[in-house]
Amino acid sequence: MTPSILLFISTYILILFFGKYRTYIALTSGVLFVLTGMLPYSELFSSIDFNVLLMIIGTMGLVSLFTESKMPAMLADMVMEKVPDVKWAAVSLALFAGIISAGSREFIYQRYEKKNICGKIRHSRGIKQYN
Q1: 78 near 72, Cβ under 8 Å?
Q2: For residue 123, what are the contacts with CB-CB under 8 A and spacing of at least 6?
Q3: Where are the domains of the chain?
Q4: Which of 15, 85, 90, 91 is the most exposed place for a label (fewest CB within 10 A)?
Q5: Model confidence pLDDT, tens digit, residues 66-113
C-alpha cells in the first residue's frame, strides 16, 4: 500500500473513533500530506475544492439554524402522535425525508438546470454532463 492510502485510512479510522477531535485529526493529516511530499506545496491551493468547502459550510449553517428553531422536535412530536408505535414512526420519518429530498432536488432542477445555468458551469470545468 502506498503511504498516502495508509495515511488516509488511518485518518478515517481516527476520525471514527475520536469524533470530538476530528478537526485536529484532519488538519494534522493534511499537514502530514504536505510535509512528507505526498502533496507538493505548489499544488496545495489548486487541489482544494472551494466549492465543496463553501457548500459544506453553508449546509452546516442551515442545519444549525434548523436545529435551533426546534422544528425537528416539533415534527417528531407530530409524527409520534399520529402513528401507533416506534416502527411506524421510523417508516414515516424516512418517507417524509425522502419526499423532502426529492422535492428539493426537483426544485433545484427546475430552477437552475432548465435555465442551463448548471450545464454552463459543468461545461466550463470540463465535467461531462449526463442526463
Answers
A1: no
A2: 129
A3: 3-43, 83-125
A4: 85
A5: 888 988 888 878 888 888 888 888 888 888 888 877 766 666 666 665
Residue 36: DSSP 8-state: T
Which residue type, as a one-letter code, is found at position 1? Answer: M
End-to-end CA separation in angstroms for the chain: 37
Helical H segments across the chain, by residue range? 3-17, 22-35, 50-68, 71-82, 86-108, 117-125
Residue 113 C-alpha cell reads as 438546470
Residue type, 67: T
State the Cα–Cα distance between residues 93 and 80, nearest whole angstrom.
10
Q: Which residue has the cell 416506534?
A: 86
